């Protein structure tokens, strides 16, 4: 293990396996896209395209955040995109994730294939929802849980205020 600093990352690194243990600090507004297979620790991005396979820990971003697997707390100022988010996912504008386990909160839009847990946003759209959706407009193809909102759609059934699926 060595400490490596480039304009893209600062963390303890195993260069052979591209594994970071610690912190990632891309330079503000000038960062180049960076890539790592796994980052354990904290990643802070002001403007970055974080092309990572797995992030374990806390990840913050001002504009855009992307990881295949995010375990822990992920906060993004604008947009988050990924394959799976486990834990807490909070975005300023929208999130697009294939699978969410835990809490997903967004000011405008949450889009997932499979949601297990609590989803809060102005617009929530899923293929499968296991848990609770809270928003103005909630839409899912398959619901095992509850929807609270101005308009809730579960498959072919659309109801105002409350929709429950078994």
**Tally of helical segments:** 0
Order of helices and strands: EEEEEEEEEEEE
**Helix coverage percent of residues?**
under 10%
Largest pleated sheet: 12 strands, mixed
Low-confidence stretches: 1-33
Overall geometry comes to elongated
Q: Give the count of structural domains.
A: 1
Roughly how many Å is the radius of gyration?
Answer: 17 Å
What integer is the average pLDDT? Answer: 77
* Secondary structure tally: strands: 12
Which class of secondary structure composition applies to the elements?
mainly beta
N-C termini distance = 51 Å
Q: Strand fraction band?
A: over 45%
Strand order of the largest sheet: 1-2-3-4-5-6-7-8-9-10-11-12
Describe this structure in words.
With 166 residues, the chain is an all-beta fold. 0% of the residues lie in helices and 78% in strands. The protein has no helices and twelve strands. It has a twelve-stranded mixed sheet, with no helix packed on it. The N and C termini lie far apart (51 Å). The model is unreliable at 1-33 (pLDDT under 50).
Summarize the structure.
The protein is mainly β and 166 residues long.
List the helices and strands and how they pair.
Blueprint: E1 2-5, E2 10-14, E3 19-24, E4 34-45, E5 50-61, E6 64-76, E7 79-91, E8 94-106, E9 109-120, E10 123-134, E11 137-154, E12 157-165
Parallel strand pairs: 3-4, 4-5, 5-6, 6-7, 7-8, 8-9, 9-10, 10-11
Antiparallel strand pairs: 1-2, 2-3, 11-12
Jot down its keywords:
166 residues; single chain; mainly beta; elongated; 0% helix; 12-stranded mixed β-sheet; disordered N terminus
């Amino acid at each position: 293990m060595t400490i490596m600093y480039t304009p893209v990352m600062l963390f303890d690194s195993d260069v052979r396996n591209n594994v970071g243990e610690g912190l990632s600090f891309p330079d503000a507004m000038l960062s180049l896209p960076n890539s790592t297979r796994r980052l354990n620790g904290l990643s802070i991005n002001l403007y970055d395209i974080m092309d990572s396979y797995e992030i374990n820990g806390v990840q913050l971003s001002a504009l855009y955040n992307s990881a295949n697997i995010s375990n822990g707390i992920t906060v993004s100022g604008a947009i988050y995109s990924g394959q799976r988010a486990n834990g807490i996912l909070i975005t300023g504008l929208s999130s697009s994730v294939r699978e969410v386990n835990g809490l997903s909160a967004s000011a405008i839009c949450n889009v997932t294939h499979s949601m297990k847990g609590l989803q809060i946003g102005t617009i929530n759209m899923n293929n499968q929802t296991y848990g609770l959706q809270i928003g103005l407009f909630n839409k899912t193809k398959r619901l095992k849980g509850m929807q609270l909102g101005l308009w809730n759609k579960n498959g072919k059934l659309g109801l105002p205020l409350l929709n429950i699926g078994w």
